[in-house]
Amino acid sequence: MDFGTLGDGRTDDAAAIQRAIDACSRQGGGTVLFPSGHTFMAGPVQLKSNVNLHLETNATLLANPDEGIYHLSAFGKNEGEGMMWLWCKDIENLSITGKGTIDGNGVAFMGEELSDSYDLKPVTTFDPRPHVLTLIGVKNLTIRDVTIRNGAYWTVHLVGCDGANIEGIHLLNNLKIRNGDGIDLDHSRNVRISNCHITSGDDCICLKNRREYEEYGPCHDIVVTNCVMTSRSCAIKIGSENMDSIARVMIDNCIITASNRGIGIQNRDEGTVTDVVFSNIMLDCRLWSDVWWGKAEPIYVTSYPRANGNHKDANWRFPKGQIEGKCGEVARIYFNNITATSENGCFVGGDKVGKVHGIYFNNVRINLVKPNVKQRGVFDKRPCKGEGFVKADWGELVRMPVALYTENATVMGVPEYGSD
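RESULT FIELD:
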């Protein structure tokens, strides 16, 4: 506030906040303090090296709802998937801490509220919705204790970060906001996520390698532990956008509740997913609407070629000059001590023999409960070539051709549908 913020929740304080951050970084680093009892409304703000952004209890940093002030694309030349609000590029030693709140003001950027979601305002190749945190090329990053809520698009997006610790945060997005991812790890390495509570309309935690940031290399060496998650899409997802390799990932000791899909490896591009361990996880999966990807699959492991692009992504999903893609290997994936109550079975599949192999189920127990009859025996392969929804036996474990190994794996059905 010494730099001129009003903190009244009505005046845009971005310029004053930026002056404070710039001065702090220029002087060698320190803390930029948001004091308790104030709401600091702001448009885009650039974060800098050696700065700790600290929000005291009952302090709120709120996104300005004016769509016209967001011009910096979250994906470079691809302007069709949102803009940046709080952002940085190629810096080091950044911290975001405190018991205060960062509020993305998400509903302000939505259209009409529907029964299962908010309608999205019409866009073509430019989408003004702001991502909350877009942190690009950060070395030594800490996000701790804060509440981050109401994202209008992705919430915490780490791109090419090396050495990140996200601990003890409450990430509470509106479950009706589409594209409202929780934490996206994109081309990032040496990341630890622990003791977090995440609710998101879209994926809670997602690992990927977007084509727009291919210069930052693969996504490796990730640990997620002691988290509680709820999602209308997939609580823990690996892939969907993956043009490089994702490897050496450990996800342990988590609870997933009321999610449209529990654990998903959704490879749709030429990148690979290998050496991933999921262990000690409790799942509760339910069928929601087709707005959200997934059909209550507690475990979903796939590699299918991507569907052709549309006007929004303008073929950013494919290598330059190509209009069709291919999908890479998914191998050495381990599921240990998984317990699920779900309205559908697991789905494991690939487009070719040998594409998906070395999938291990050890002490995996699925309790099938009665689903909506219309949805029974349907699996969701989107976004893939061909049919997005496929019919299968209810409770099906594998869609060939894959190499899957089980030990103490059990599927129990409700009485009217029998057991398998």
